[in-house]
Amino acid sequence: MVVSTYSQKQRLLEMTKKLVFSLLFWACMSPNLVQARVPMEPIAGNSFAEDFSLNSVGGTKIRLQDFQGKFVLLNFWATWCAPCRNEMPALDNLHNAMRRNGLEVIGVHVGPSLESVTKFLDQVPVKFTILIDQDMRLANWGVMGLPTTFLVSPEGRLVYKAVGEREWDSPAIKKFLTGVISGHAQIVHSHQDASTESFLKQLKRVFKRLYQKTVGQLLTDMDHRLFYQPYNLSA
Fold it and tell me: What are the tens digits of pLDDT across the range 16-26?
């Protein structure tokens, strides 16, 4: 009975994977998804990206948390997706151009086929990290079509999303991403200034209390001795 239940779960899991692959394939082939009017759409809310651990093409375990402190452009793709393949050189150009500005590009291949990924990368080599989501662990990211790309902030928040093919190395997208990164830096800087100002105010209050209890009290005692002690007839 236990074996039967386990087999049913396995069949259900396999059917679910096949259905997801079918939907992704259909969405990848849909012409409406590759016609983008804006670089990326803002993601409503203040949700954090769920951390993950996946193998790179070279077999190294990589976590999203490893890139904390940087903006991460996380691109979901597959070798059987033509628009995904088209994006690879542009994503590589973007990675090389903006990595020094704090942007890290990561490609996540949806599903197994490590051999096909390796073969593709031999033909179209890229310098950014390529991960293999072999068991589709990241299905909860809500990827409904390929390619789908997320922009994750240095704090790990999901801030922008793009569904469909993009010219990632175009001047418009570079300008957009540069604006997002510089705007974030200004916000962080202003928060640091506010924190520093608050700390200085607290430090000033501490020194004021110390002054009143030490130097201020000493001066008060000296004033008392100088002006009142000469008239102390009992001294």
Answer: 555 555 555 55
